[in-house]
Design brief:
441 residues; Rossmann fold; 2 domains; elongated; binds nicotinamide-adenine-dinucleotide
């Protein structure tokens, strides 16, 4: 079995490290965030990801998985080193590469034998070569002659179902020009290889592009149905039925055709902007990408207008219950969540908000600190809707799929529902006496 280091112990690094150890490899996860590593050393999982905790606990117990802030020791102990650090957007929409390049230089600073360096972070085309040359520069400065190979192995897991996605991927993409590195990577993924998971073997640049192309396409698909929903609202069509029938066409597939308040999360917003920027900078601008980014921003504001359209432009004196602030269910991640735009806009119009989210409060507390005076955190749905003028469902957590609406009267809550995830049916809500607003239905 292999000795693996994973640099960056976030949503991707921690899941990858834990599951590689579960495959039987010996794994050390490195992070320069001391607090994060301290929590892991104390048996705490710093992120909310269903099913991850027992895998971490079990593999730590069997000494296949450990955590450290000591990069030198981790590099020395491993033959294969995954870079899984963040690649956030820079101010101009391009990718901020400082974390990836710092990790690459750090590896070169400490390595003393052949290593395979695997880029798991989502990075622009050309990063593999850049990592190689930055590392070589460090080795030259050190005056040592040590060989290494660079591999691109983009990750496709989704937060909320990361364990299942990592162990049952649709495909594993391995980008390298080197046979030895390819064989080593196949050994790392041996368990999946034996399970007949499709493997895509390609050059580094193609592997890097596959990740951006996949995310950008999915974001575009969501944006298509969101814009179509807006048209459906105007012409009296039902976007859910349109999407269902569209999805029955095998060429289209029903996934990512759910109209809503706009995509969010740590990947789609930054990856669409990055692809748009990559395309622009090589002189081949992708109009579809620019339009997707712009339409998604508009969609979030459109949700605010939907609410003010019913409650009035001036929301002073109005209390709105907000159900869900994370960008999707089963995660505590709020990066680029539509709530980050919608909640401050509602407060700007004068509203007081009563907010509940099964996992979002910890991050929400600091993300919404500027509007905290107008925001009350509630422990559950019913305390959030108490005395409210309207309810807004922003995230489709399971808990919000079975609301007991018969309690509204006793709670002094007005029967006005903005169902921005189309969980409920208009006819049923209207029968219960609600004013119902969905998205395109
Ligand atoms: P994250 O922010 O959760 O984690 C990144 C971690 O890297 C942090 O803990 C940070 O402290 C650490 N780090 C940064 N620089 C470091 C260094 N020099 N040494 C050690 N640790 C360092 O990020 P994430 O969501 O896990 O994403 C990581 C990459 O994977 C990104 O490129 C992202 O686009 C990609 N990706 C993310 C997802 C997802 O769902 N989150 C899915 C697929 C791909």
């Amino acid at each position: 079995m292999a000795n693996i280091a994973v640099i960056g112990t976030g949503y991707v690094g921690l899941v990858s490290g834990a599951l590689f150890s579960d495959f039987g490899h010996t794994v050390v996860c490195v992070d320069n965030d001391e607090q994060k590593i301290d929590r892991l050393l104390n048996g705490e999982i710093p992120i909310y990801e269903p099913g991850l905790e027992p895998i971490v606990t079990n593999n730590v117990y069997y000494k296949r998985l450990r955590f450290t802030t000591d990069l030198k020791q981790a590099v020395g102990a491993s033959d294969i080193i995954f870079i899984a650090v963040g690649t956030p957007p820079a101010h101009d929409g391009s990718v901020d590469m400082q974390y990836v390049l710092a990790a690459a230089r750090g590896i070169a600073e400490h390595m003393d034998a052949y290593k395979v360096i695997v880029d798991k972070s989502t990075v622009p085309v050309g990063t593999g070569q850049r990592v190689r040359s930055e590392m070589q520069e460090v080795l030259d400065r050190r005056g040592v002659d040590i060989s290494f190979d660079v591999v691109s192995n983009p990750e496709f897991l989704r937060e909320g179902s990361a364990v299942q996605d990592f162990t049952h991927p649709d495909r594993v993409v391995i980008g390298t020009e080197n046979e030895k590195a390819l064989d080593i990577m196949k050994d790392v993924y041996r368990v999946l290889f034996l399970n007949e998971t499709p493997f895509v073997e390609t050059d580094i640049e193609t592997a890097e592009m596959i990740k951006y192309a996949s995310n950008a396409f999915l974001a575009m698909k969501i944006t298509f149905i969101n814009e179509l929903a807006n048209v459906c609202e105007k012409v009296g069509a039902n976007v859910q039925k349109v999407a269902k029938a569209m999805g029955q066409d095998g060429r289209i597939s029903p996934k990512f055709l759910h109209a809503g308040p706009g995509y969010g999360g740590s990947c789609f917003p930054k990856d669409t902007k990055a692809l748009a920027e990559i395309a622009r900078s090589c002189g081949e601008p992708m109009k579809l990408m620019d339009a997707t980014v712009e339409a998604n921003e508009k969609q979030k504001l459109r949700m605010v207008r939907k609410i003010t359209g019913e409650l009035g432009e001036d929301l002073h004196g109005k209390t709105i219950a907000i159900l869900g602030i994370t960008f999707k269910p089963k995660t505590d991640d709020m990066r680029d969540s539509p709530s980050l735009v919608i909640l401050p806009e509602l407060v700007k119009c004068g509203a007081k908000l009563r907010v509940t989210d099964p996992q979002g409060k910890k991050e929400g507390l600091w993300r919404f600190k500027d509007i905290s005076e107008n925001l009350t955190w509630c422990t559950d749905i019913y305390s959030a809707v108490e005395q409210s003028d309207a309810t807004v469902i922003l995230t489709e957590w399971h808990q919000f799929r079975a609301i007991d609406f018969t309690r509204y009267e006793a709670l002094g809550a007005k029967k006005v529902l903005f169902d921005l995830r189309n969980i409920y049916r208009r006819d049923q809500m209207e029968q219960l006496g609600f004013v119902y607003h969905g998205v395109g239905v």
